[in-house]
Amino acid sequence: MQAADPTSSVTEISNHEEAADCISRCVIIWKRATGYLRKAIINSVLSVSLLAARNPKRCIGLVCLMSITLITTGLFTNFYLDPGDEKIFAPTDCLPQEHGRWVGETYPDVRRPTVLTVHADGGNIMTYEAMRRVFQVTDMVRNIDGYETICAGENGDNEGCRIPGPTRFWNHNVTLFEEQTQGSDEAVIQTLSQESLDGAPFPHDLFIGKLQWEVVDGHNQTNNSLITFAQAITSLIEIPEWSNGETEAFELKMINLLQPIKDEWAAQGEDQPYRLELYAFRSISDEVTRAIANDVPLIPCVFAIMAAFTCMVFCRRDIIQSRALLGIGSVVTILLSIMSGFGLVFIIGLPFTSMTSILPFAIFGIGLDDTFIIVGAFLRTDPTKDPVERIRDTMEEAGMSISMTTITTTVAFVMGALTSSIPIIQWLCLYAFPTICIDFLYQITFFVAILVLDERRIAANRRGCCVCFRVKNHDKEDVDTDEMDKDVSPVANHVEAPMVDRFMNWYCEHLLHPVVKKIVMIAFLMLFGVCIYSTTLLRQDFKPTDFLPEVSYAGEYLDVMDLYSNRKLPILVHFRDVNQSDPQVQQQMIDYLNDLGDLPQVNSTPEICWVTDFQKLLNGDDPAFQAYSSLFGNNSTLTFMEKLDILLNVPEINDLYGKDISDFLADQRRVAEAQPANQGGGRFKFFAFDPIYFIWEFYTDVPSELTFTTVSGVVAVTVLAFILIPHWTAALFVLPFMCILYMDLLGTLQFAGLSINPLTYICLVISVGLLVDFIMHILLRYYESTMPTREEKVKDTLRTMGSSILVGGLSTCLGVFPLAFSSSGIIKTVFVMFMAMVALGVSHGLLLLPVILSYVGPTVCIKLGRGDYYLPELAEQEDRIDNEPEAPPEAPPPAVEDSDIQPYVSAAMAQWPSEDPLAPTGTEETLDTTEEETPRNTEYYTSSVASSDEDAIIMSRVSFDSGIVEAEPENSIAGNKEDCDDDAEFSI
């Protein structure tokens, strides 16, 4: 056997030491960088809040003036209410968007359809009375004052308003109809069953819903047979478009005229079975706008509910200590932030949609969370201090917490705007993130100013509500002074109800019972498993009626079309950038149509296609065109356009295709004659298009869009947690908890009977920014806790921040509760989603996360305010990153007695900065080392440490740069040895 090389062990040890030293350098650099960032945030918050605290009245006046100016300017300049069409749901760079723009430019809407449908709630509509009612409502439209003028408008033609429906069988003449039918149902059936009208095929499926032909030898016959049953008859009126809005005004007259008829027919009940449904080109936009307008009164309801809730929370029996007006001020703060944020976006010119109308309810919930945290921290300060100094202490404690959650929520919305290509998502996020930022700014200025004025009111012995009246002989017996002196959570010191305070004390004791912790872990594990399974059952679905009010004539029309119509979705096939007069190109066009017809979703040939009919006419293949094929004879010198003119002069063909195709081909002739086939760039030359493609594109892209947007948002907030919470373990909690919460939300969505559609997609994008707040607040407070053990840190967190989370969650529920009374399905969907978010966020933040922290939470302490101790040994060690590393000592240091440690402590205290780095110039702060209580903002302070042969000498280390109290093995430990857990964890 060969002897072991002693140099190899030395080399391995040296490599390990170099690796450890490299890691230590990186950690120190990271702590310094993040420490500077946190200090910059704290200093900024302090500067702004102290400025507002010193000038409260000016601050309040300036914020009110700014908010009113922004919202007024926005409403009267670039405010635009977009009811929303299919385009806003499709990605901006998708093919349907490009095709839709081209179709809109090439085929401008020159006619607007008005649809009148008569049905019998599923009964047979093939009767004389039903057809008479179709004539009745059609003639009512034709008799509206100004109908003839509209029909002869700037986009009109010799035909005026077109009525291609079944009334054409009687030349739109009700007198002729009555004379020919004589009240006979059979006569109506005979006429409506005719295959053609004026020599052109009549599209029965387009105007007669769910029709059934008579059965002969077991087969439905459509040739020379009768329609025995149908559920709806539709009359279509195509009105020319006017650029000055005259057509829209006429449509409004028509709707106002026919809606009473519709209601009258429905009110007759079983006396007559017929019902009327109407639809105009403007119907959807009108009804979506009405839905938004109906939801606007919900915002004052939210304001009233939140004001009542905060008044109840801040109210006390003592007429002076009661802070009811402070509660109203907190709600006014959020309302002003919404006015400013929305006004700013209005000025920019972003459309306001039905989706955007859900944001005020979310902002109310988010804003009140910050309010409760600020008030709770303020009431934990020394009440004998000046209010401005108390604001300083408040922001030192709570400033980083509210700043961090604001940053994470804002970044989540910014990522949604940057990563999503769907316009309605982008607009929503662009409305959200500036409003959230402004709300944060108003919280540390406007609300701080109100808080200072309220404190001055208390000092002046003025009543809580009637501030004009001073209480001369104030009976202080009603005030629980013992409770006021306690350093408790936001539920103490007459901010929240004592019941909440007592509940949180009871709750944290019982939650951390070993049996309860195991039950919580098992319950949430089961919930996670069930939600994962439920997520696999999610489906994609979309109903246009979700955007409409519950009671809507347009929604009823769409429902009737689904129930009683067998109309197929008409898909238009477009050909561009090719020479359509070329026979080879025409054959390619026919081949493309045949390929589309072979698709299982189509499984038919085009019902109307000019190129196929043109070929049939030229070749004489179709018996219907044989009489006209002789027009061409043997004259082969006719050009394509001359042949097409002959084709369009055939009356039946002219009725079928009309003048539009001729106009289009005339416009395209210059391009078609100048370019060979397939020339003109890389865009599609043959393509099918319909506006429904926008929604289809949404469903095609939503899996990848949702995945990318969610992943980017979760990663962004995790990185922010790694930067803003100065301990690397924070990211290890944020990332898995966000993933768990998101999966639970998807599963809950399926439990509630919802599906993936544009509405739920938007809520899922918002959820990242809302759910992270519940986790961040708890984590940051846990790291700041001065308790020595995990369970004590968890209890301290629940007693302080836990109360704010609980009340904040309740406030969010109240904020979205009025959505349950919305008249539109979209807002009700948002209500369900927001309630699910709050329930999951509060339960995971107040149940699961504390239990996990009690098992594996770090025991370090992080203080983000001022007053951290500074030791010269620490500065010397951290400065080693700029110098050569020192060689490790050859032998461990000797044991040190208590008396040996005292000089180090004295030297450290001598170098403690006498001037507060965050205080204004001229203010000084001294440290009274004679007090027995722990120095402010410092986790542990040790004057002596016991030593033994088994344990290394450990000394308190506090970083002034980063604000972290940590310990280094064999060099330092935080706190008294007897105060630490046996398994206490320390960050290297």
TrEMBL record:
<feature type="domain" description="SSD">
    <location>
        <begin position="295"/>
        <end position="453"/>
    </location>
</feature>
<feature type="region of interest" description="Disordered">
    <location>
        <begin position="967"/>
        <end position="988"/>
    </location>
</feature>
<feature type="transmembrane region" description="Helical">
    <location>
        <begin position="706"/>
        <end position="725"/>
    </location>
</feature>
<feature type="region of interest" description="Disordered">
    <location>
        <begin position="880"/>
        <end position="899"/>
    </location>
</feature>
<keyword id="KW-1133">Transmembrane helix</keyword>
<feature type="transmembrane region" description="Helical">
    <location>
        <begin position="801"/>
        <end position="821"/>
    </location>
</feature>
<feature type="transmembrane region" description="Helical">
    <location>
        <begin position="324"/>
        <end position="352"/>
    </location>
</feature>
<feature type="transmembrane region" description="Helical">
    <location>
        <begin position="732"/>
        <end position="753"/>
    </location>
</feature>
<feature type="compositionally biased region" description="Acidic residues">
    <location>
        <begin position="979"/>
        <end position="988"/>
    </location>
</feature>
<keyword id="KW-0812">Transmembrane</keyword>
<keyword id="KW-0472">Membrane</keyword>
<feature type="transmembrane region" description="Helical">
    <location>
        <begin position="400"/>
        <end position="425"/>
    </location>
</feature>
<dbReference type="InterPro" id="IPR051697">
    <property type="entry name" value="Patched_domain-protein"/>
</dbReference>
<feature type="transmembrane region" description="Helical">
    <location>
        <begin position="759"/>
        <end position="780"/>
    </location>
</feature>
<dbReference type="GO" id="GO:0016020">
    <property type="term" value="C:membrane"/>
</dbReference>
<feature type="compositionally biased region" description="Polar residues">
    <location>
        <begin position="937"/>
        <end position="946"/>
    </location>
</feature>
<dbReference type="InterPro" id="IPR000731">
    <property type="entry name" value="SSD"/>
</dbReference>
<dbReference type="InterPro" id="IPR053958">
    <property type="entry name" value="HMGCR/SNAP/NPC1-like_SSD"/>
</dbReference>
<protein>
    <submittedName>
        <fullName>Pick C1-like protein 1</fullName>
    </submittedName>
</protein>
<comment type="similarity">
    <text>Belongs to the patched family.</text>
</comment>
<feature type="transmembrane region" description="Helical">
    <location>
        <begin position="358"/>
        <end position="379"/>
    </location>
</feature>
<feature type="transmembrane region" description="Helical">
    <location>
        <begin position="431"/>
        <end position="453"/>
    </location>
</feature>
<feature type="transmembrane region" description="Helical">
    <location>
        <begin position="296"/>
        <end position="315"/>
    </location>
</feature>
<dbReference type="Pfam" id="PF12349">
    <property type="entry name" value="Sterol-sensing"/>
</dbReference>
<feature type="region of interest" description="Disordered">
    <location>
        <begin position="912"/>
        <end position="946"/>
    </location>
</feature>
<feature type="transmembrane region" description="Helical">
    <location>
        <begin position="519"/>
        <end position="538"/>
    </location>
</feature>
<feature type="transmembrane region" description="Helical">
    <location>
        <begin position="833"/>
        <end position="856"/>
    </location>
</feature>
<feature type="transmembrane region" description="Helical">
    <location>
        <begin position="59"/>
        <end position="81"/>
    </location>
</feature>
